[in-house]
Amino acid sequence: xxxxxxxxxxxLNAPAFADKFDSKTTNTILQFLSLHVGPSTDFGLPxxxxxxxxxxxxxxxxxxxxxxxLEDPPSCVDFDARLRYLYSHTFADTHSIGAAIYIHxxxxxxxxxxxxxxxxxxxQPYFSLIFGGGALFSKIDNHRFNGGYIExxxxxxxxxxxxxxxxxxxxxxxxxxxxxxxxxAGADSTMHGIHVVFNISPAVFMLWH
Length: 209
Prior knowledge:
Layout: H1 2-13, H2 20-30, E1 33-42, E2 53-64, E3 78-88, E4 94-104, E5 111-112, E6 121-122, E7 127-138, E8 144-156, E9 163-174, H3 176-181, E10 190-200
Antiparallel strand pairs: 1-2, 1-10, 2-3, 3-4, 4-7, 5-6, 7-8, 8-9, 9-10
């Protein structure tokens, strides 16, 4: 029974089987809750003898992927608002809690989907713009609030609700205790990094039951 439900969900998510309205509705439902995993890289500080470090990020978010999906005729721009928790295992082993806004441009331009037939089109591009920010809580400071972050990037294949990708540049601004705790006197309290985040719908895990 579960496998039949999974097959149905997969078909609804395949662009070749759904029109624009159905695709956006299905996406909004299945990615209301998203799980996150991916690699993170914090760039080093040469003047402080700190090398670049790559680790993993995990987390989750809730939100609505297409706020204007019921609009008729469709708007040329749509939006996504999400609340996101992300843990990054790099320099500071940092927990972040914040919000992100996705801008889906060119909604009224027809573009073919990769998995669809040549005759199948959706009014949705392959990328979205992302802007966000929030608070930082680092292990090195006993998980107390010790800074904030801003981020910007692009989202790829956002209309695919089972799995899609965010590529984010993040600037993290830590307080004075950051330098003191890790004995980096004179080091910058701002860290720059790249996060690649795979957004996974919980529906994916039904395939294994």
